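Archive maintenance. Older records in this collection stored only the sequence; we are now back-filling the structure field for every entry so that each record is complete. The fields below show one back-filled record exactly as it appears after the update. Entries are processed alphabetically, and MOXD2 protein is next in the queue.

ARCHIVE ENTRY
Title: MOXD2 protein
Organism field: Lophotis ruficrista
Length field: 97
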Amino acid sequence: MAVLFSRIKSMLFLLFLPCFCSGQTAPPLLRHSIFLDPSNMVYLRWDHDEQELIMFELQVHTAGWVAFGFSPYGELPGSDIVIGGVFPNGSIYFSVS
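Back-filled structure field:
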């Protein structure tokens, strides 16, 4: 899944949702990782290449949805947000705002 964020010049972000990809080939090796919360329930992995392509993998203990934001200043106003999840019937949704 790829999204081009208009506010971030010449960058392409890929967000892998591993829970949606069962049965497919393994994602590429991502060299960087960090837990984003003190309880270690939100795990982010990422890597980039020479062409400024950045790949993200977000692993989250969730009740069916996850949101992930990008901001040049670390604040919600002006950020780009990716939201994805699973409806009760099992269908998947993915949105960018």
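Update note: The two ends are 15 Å apart (CA to CA). The beta strands are 2-4, 12-16, 32-35, 42-48, 53-60, 65-70, 80-86, 92-96.
Entry marked complete.
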